[in-house]
């Protein structure tokens, strides 16, 4: 089967991380190509893709109204003559004229994605039941759900810790620094509240970069928790996979999130996880059965849950073990890619 994946850009994000895994796994059995429309891509990410995958860079300037990149894209698709065109940005659908033999597929990677350009001939794929419900509520259309997968074998596992006496409880949050979506401000305020309660041996590492970093750094100073909060900046996946095991808790306080790939990765490292009680991350922990959740936007409840985990860490690790088994069964890359192939074969 000839499969062409199309994206506007290829930068840091959960969708790109997932796509690297899809490309590498699909290329073992299929003929796979990647088309990047805009001149926005990171070479170190492209280097992680199997050389068997053909990569085409159209180098369109972002925001350009020139018709030539559009013509170039469609001519390339015509030449490749794929069985499947798999698009990872709904806006691309307004400039793709060709329809592949087995169909045109769009993976919806987040909540609230506009779908006005997704015609009835486009097969919609949601990365979680939360995204599927969002699509149906907004458009009345049905989507199939194919959850994201993670490479479990590449993530190093942590060992059990009995207590935090004389040690810091180390919390990690991995995502773009974007408070409107990812909610890092909630975690900072929760740490400050715990400090008021006398629990000061808590340390948080934010891994990622983004437009909210200055705002978050200012918040850290306002709440006097500068000695507890660290901004590590952008780290590649290899670094993250080898260092997650050094933490005691993953907290993902997102205000909205379609899936939450880093939550599954934290579970794969055998970390207890704490998420807000809506969206994809809450779905990953089976709505609180396999992890911990706090009420959306509620700083006090977030602090309460961290304190509970702090005081009952043995129980938290037992839950982490059950979560690991579940994630290994439900969110593997192999399972994800097999589901995509089935979707292509039965559009």
UniProtKB/TrEMBL annotation:
Residues 165-317 form the Glycosyl transferase family domain. Pfam families: Glyco_transf_4, Glycos_transf_1. GO terms for molecular function: glycosyltransferase activity. Coiled coil: none annotated. InterPro entries: Glyco_trans_1, Glyco_trans_4-like_N. SUPFAM superfamilies: UDP-Glycosyltransferase/glycogen phosphorylase. Residues 12-153 form the Glycosyltransferase subfamily 4-like N-terminal domain. This is Glycosyl transferase family 1 domain-containing protein. It comes from Bacteroides stercoris CC31F.
């Amino acid at each position: 089967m000839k499969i062409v994946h199309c994206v506007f850009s290829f930068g840091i994000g959960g969708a790109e991380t997932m796509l690297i895994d899809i490309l590498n796994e699909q290329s073992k059995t299929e003929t796979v190509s990647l088309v990047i429309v805009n001149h926005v891509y990171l070479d170190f990410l492209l280097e992680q893709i199997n050389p068997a995958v053909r990569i085409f860079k159209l180098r369109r300037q972002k925001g350009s109204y020139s018709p030539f990149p559009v013509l170039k894209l469609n001519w390339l698709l015509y030449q490749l003559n794929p069985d499947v065109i798999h698009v990872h940005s709904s806006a691309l659908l307004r400039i793709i004229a060709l329809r592949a033999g087995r169909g045109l597929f769009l993976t919806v990677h987040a909540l609230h994605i506009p779908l006005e350009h997704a015609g009835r001939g486009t097969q919609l794929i949601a990365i979680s039941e939360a995204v599927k419900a969002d699509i149906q509520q907004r458009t009345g259309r049905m989507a199939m759900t194919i959850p994201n997968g993670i490479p479990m074998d590449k993530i190093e596992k942590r060992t059990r810790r009995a207590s935090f006496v004389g040690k810091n409880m180390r919390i990690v949050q991995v995502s773009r620094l974007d408070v409107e979506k990812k909610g890092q401000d909630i975690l900072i305020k929760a740490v400050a509240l715990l400090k008021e309660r006398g629990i000061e041996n808590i340390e948080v590492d934010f891994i990622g970069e983004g437009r909210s970093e200055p705002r978050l750094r200012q918040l850290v100073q306002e709440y006097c928790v500068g000695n507890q909060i660290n901004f590590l900046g952008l780290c590649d996946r290899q670094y993250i996979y080898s260092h997650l095991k050094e933490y005691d808790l993953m907290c993902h306080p997102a205000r909205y999130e379609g899936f939450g790939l880093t939550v599954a990765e934290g579970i794969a490292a055998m970390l207890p996880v704490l998420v807000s009680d809506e969206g994809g991350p809450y779905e990953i922990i089976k709505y609180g059965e396999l992890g911990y959740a706090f009420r959306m936007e509620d700083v006090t409840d977030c602090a309460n849950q961290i304190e509970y985990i702090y005081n009952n860490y043995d129980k938290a690790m037992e839950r982490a073990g059950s979560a690991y088994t579940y994630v290994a069964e439900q969110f593997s890359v192999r399972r994800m890619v097999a589901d995509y192939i089935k979707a292509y074969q039965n559009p």
